[in-house]
Amino acid sequence: xxxxxxxxxxxxxxxxxxxxxxxxxxxxxxxxxxxxxxxxxxxxxxxxxxxxxxxxxxxxxxxxxxxxxxxxxxxxxxxxxxxxxxxxxxxxxxxxxxxxxxxxxxxxxxxxxxxxxxxxxxxxxxxxxxxxxxxxxxxxxxxxxxxxxxxxxxxxxxxxxxxxxxxxxxxxxxxxxxxxxxxxxxxxxxxxxxxxxxxxxxxxxxxxxxxxxxxxxxxxxxxxxxxxxxxxxxxxxxxxxxxxxxxxxxxxxxxxxxxxxxxxxxxxxxxxxxxxxxxxxxxxxxxxxxxxxxxxxxxxxxxxxxxxxxxxxxxxxxxxxxxxxxxxxxxxxxxxxxxxxxxxxxxxxxxxxxxxxxxxxxxxxxxxxxxxxxxxxxxxxxxxxxxxxxxxxxxxxxxxxxxxxxxxxxxxxxxxxxxxxxxxxxxxxxxxxxxxxxxxxxxxxxxxxxxxxxxxxxxxxxxxxxxxxxxxxxxxxxxxxxxxxxxxxxxxxxxxxxxxxxxxxxxxxxxxxxxxxxxxxxxx
Length: 524
Fold this sequence. Notes:
The protein is an alpha+beta fold. It is built from nine helices and 27 strands. A hairpin with a 4-residue loop joins strand 24 (492-498) and strand 25. The chain is globular.
């Protein structure tokens, strides 16, 4: 028996001894747990007399990999912006889901898309298929059925999305006020028997779309505007032409992949796209691929270009506007089927385009717009170079409709500037008359046109009643970059670049006027 301490000092020393003894016991237990593998529940050492620890629950099983989302199946992925700024994620996939899966879920072929951490299955736009040979722009002997061994999937993106991914690919999202817009057109490689034109698609110095896209992506655009003609390989490369040897041809997936999706990959990954249809995407040419892959509207068989009986529907589409924020918008106009001759007022094409231009007037009248940009493929108030002769004027078919609606003004008053492709050069035109400044940026890859005369012959005009003030032009491969002016200024600056990224000209836009730092022909 121990005596109980009686003095305050003795009682304090006793409490300290008991505390040290308890601390030593706890330290011993911790050491034993460390020796048995640390503090995990599987190596827990119970304190004598303490209640037993509950058994550890097994970790949840890892989710099974989603075959449809495997990167190996994803042939292309991008974001495009359509009417009312609706944003869509699109994916082209080679995955073929088991029949039992597609019977249970029509979208089983499509990958999962992850939006702000939440995964869901994309919707099937159109499945893989072989399209029978239809009437094309070429002779039947030089045409073939269109094979699409891939499916197209899509998902509408919520406006507030912060992060979007499909598989390992992060997708770029639209900005409310893009500051830099990359503009290009006519990017494909020409293989056309009727013209005896066989561009060396295997030589990136002669068909430079791939290096151009890589250079342009380095400018970090917020948006890409392609003004049409993505597909040019219509006929087979002759066996004795080395430059295009073994190139795919026709209107199926292999050609779309070679002509557009593979070389465009750096830009598709960099920014969302606004897509304009060109004449090479009309129904008798690349229209089937246009509707499968690029058109922003819901896929419909009557508009698919599969059946020539429906071409009067498939070759036309209502214009729509995409807001660029800050008082700017771009109006997208489908002129894919426009011919070269003026139209009579009772021509079905005249009636179709008249309706489209009436919609343009409504869109251009939107209140609060300081800069409305009209964009279609065929130049209206610009030129088509002709070797050794006076340049041809703008598109006469469209001019005839516009003249009927707006007389010599051609455009409704709300349009400030027009952007086009089709002619394979760069042109920036400012007018002494009250017409929207015009820019042609059709030098993205297809064979270049001859240079315009410099200076232009006296009195040369792109349309009756239109007088040119200044023109800046060149026929070198390249692209254009639009940069938003710093506030409080409004409008845009347009910069012309070569494939390598060399700046050739800078043009400032205010209202309907365009002022370039250089005029006449530009030598790279």
